[in-house]
Structure formats: C-alpha cells, structure tokens
Amino acid sequence: MSRNYIQDKTFSRIDFVLSPFEVAEYENCIFDNCNFSGCDLSEMRFVECEFKACNLSLAKLNKTALRDVKFKDCKLLGLRFESCHEFGLSFSFDRCILNHASFYKNKIKGTIFKNSQLLETDLAECDLSNAVFDNCDLAGAIFDHTNLEKADFRSSFNYTIDPDTNRIRKAKFSLPGVTGLLHKYDIEIDNGF
Predict the structure, then answer these.
(1) The CATH homologous superfamily of the domain defined by 98-193
(2) What is the edge-to-edge ordering of all strands in the sheet holding 132-134?
(3) Which of 7, 48, 135, 139 could crosslink 158 through cysteines, CB 3.0-4.6 Å?
(4) What is the mean pLDDT of the chain?
(5) Check: CATH 3.40.50.2300 for 1-92?
(6) Would the pLDDT of 106 be above 50?
(7) Is the dihedral of CA 16, 19, 25, 28 positive or negative?
C-alpha cells in the first residue's frame, strides 16, 4: 500500500470527525485544536509531531506509529496505546487528560507525564523505568507488575502502588504521597503531633 508523506504542515481547527483524515505518514507536523474523537488512526505514522489542544478520545490506534510525539492540553480519554506499533514508541504528555487510557505492556521508558490526569489508567506490565510523573493525579491508576525503577513520583498524588507486585527500586517519592505504597496494609498514618 503506498502512503502519502506529509511533512512540516500545520493543521488548525479541523474537525476530522466531519472531514476525513488522510491516511499518511506525518512528520514534524502540528495539529492545533483539532478533533479526532473516535477517528480511526490505525496504521498511520506520526513522527516528531505535536498535538495541541486536540481531542483524540476513543480514537483507534491499531498499529499506529507514534515516534517522539508531544501531546499538550489534549483530551485522550480511553485511548488504547497498547495497540500502537511497538517500534520506536515514544511520546510525552503535558496538561493532558488520559483518564481510562491503557498502556498495558507498553515499553515506554523515560516517558514524561506532566500536569496530567491519569484516572483509572491501565499501566499494568509497562516498562516505565525512568519515567517522570510531574504533578499528576493517578487516582485509580493500575500498577501491576509494572517496572517503575528510577521513576519519579515526587510531585504526583493519589497513586496506589504495591511494592510487592511492582519494581520500584530507586524510584523517587515524597511525603505524603509515599502513603500510596502502604495502601494494601489498611493502616492509619497520622502526620500530626
């Protein structure tokens, strides 16, 4: 299948739900304030692209290549990143809503999640070593057999991580967030005098 190659182009304020999105390889493109909600982005390639203030909720990502992609101020509800093409999978998130998304078994070392919501997001069996969770709300996020070695959670909150079923060696935590490591013990922690 031949595919178009689109480079260095800016797409602004386009509703791709109403006007079809061209199946292509996009490199160094900017998508600004676009709507991809529920769109089929399967088998497309995005290399060094930036999505700003876009809605990609429930978009289909079967074998989609995301390589060095930046998401900023985006709504990414329910996205299944585990369906993406594994080769070169890399992205960062700043002020994004990733609630109910799934990164199940993704190898995404060093990924940066900044000022984002990851409510009930599936991070089970991921390799998130060296990842940074900077000021993120992780309420209900699923960490199960996840590699979190050297990950930084110091400014994040509402996480529950079981040290017995996740690899957390050299991970960074701060008080009071570290209480999220003790949740399974159902103990009371008093920070007063």
Answers:
(1) E3 ubiquitin-protein ligase SopA (2.160.20.80)
(2) 10-12, 30-32, 50-52, 69-72, 91-94, 112-114, 132-134
(3) 139
(4) 94
(5) no
(6) yes
(7) negative
